[in-house]
Amino acid sequence: xxxxxxxxxxxxxxxxxxxxxxxxxxxxxxxxxxxxxxxxxxxxxxxxxxxxxxxxxxxxxxxxxxxxxxxxxxxxxxxxxxxxxxxxxxxxxxxxxxxxxxxxxxxxxxxxxxxxxxxxxxxxxxxxxxxxxxxxxxxxxxxxxxxxxxxxxxxxxxxxxxxxxxxxxxxxxxxxxxxxxxxxxxxxxxxxxxxxxxxxxxxxxxxxxxxxxxxxxxxxxxxxxxxxxxxxxxxxxxxxxxxxxxxxxxxxxxxxxxxxxxxxxxxxxxxxxxxxxxxxxxxxxxxxxxxxxxxxxxxxxxxxxxxxxxxxxxxxxxxxxxxxxxxxxxxxxxxxxxxxxxxxxxxxxxxxxxxxxxxxxxxxxxxxxxxxxxxxxxxxxxxxxxxxxxxxxxxxxx
Length: 398
Prior knowledge:
By secondary structure, the protein is α+β, with helices and mostly antiparallel strands. The protein contains 6 helices and 14 strands. Strand 11 and strand 12 (about 315-330) form a beta hairpin. This is Multidrug resistance efflux pump. It holds the Pfam family Beta-barrel_RND_2.
């Protein structure tokens, strides 16, 4: 009993943190509480503040510069990047059919107006020309023959007219003889047979006059017929001359020549190729007459006028600044000229800002350099102040 009481007494004196199944730690001797150290003074920061100030100063300076630039220039500029270099490209094609005998150019070759591009075999066309010339020569001979016949007919007319004169003279003589025989018959100095013979001679002479006059009319009619035949022959000769001209023209088409100065591209013909009329042979790009088609939004058109100065930046030459002029504005938006124009008169209408093509020309000196190639992308900036200056200059000149 005494031992049990001592055990319970000892359990009460153990620390409360002891738990069943855990070792009981021996009580630690009491130690003095640690003294708290005073807080260390923070160092003043000198690294971030100058950087922030510098960034703010740079931002203010850049904003001021941009604002000044916008106020002096930017607000007067109308820009678009939907612009491309264009040119009036000539498609060379064949006008006649035949086999290509020779090709005188290659791709990317510079040519002058009149230079030979290709030649089609001209054998058949030379024969056609010779045949047309032969027919024309034959008809010319026929016209000459008819001319000689007209001369002969006019001679026949003259002969017939002479016969008329002779017949009239004979008729007058026969009339006088008949009158004389009548007087003699009244005095019974001649026989009745003589009177009748004189009368018959007179009638025969009058008939000869009429016959001669009819021969003159026939000869004149023959001359008129021959003249009509000559006119018909001359018109037929004119048709043959037209055939000769056409044959010569077809023969000239066997040589395809450059109509303007430019550069050959997209060549699609080789020696031995059989071409038909209208077959595409090559493209001729006149680099000296290039221009820029800029598609501006319809909301930008109010300040665009022909004659304004344009700054063109070519993507292929980022360091270049090409100066041009606004030449004209399209009469309609690009959507109107498309293959399938939009039909807005529907229930599901959605308004879309339209673009209108504006043509920009560059100086001949810049075009002759050959840097601007059709299809290149450009950025166009139009200075709207230049129109007012040009109008002011025009008013001063007036």
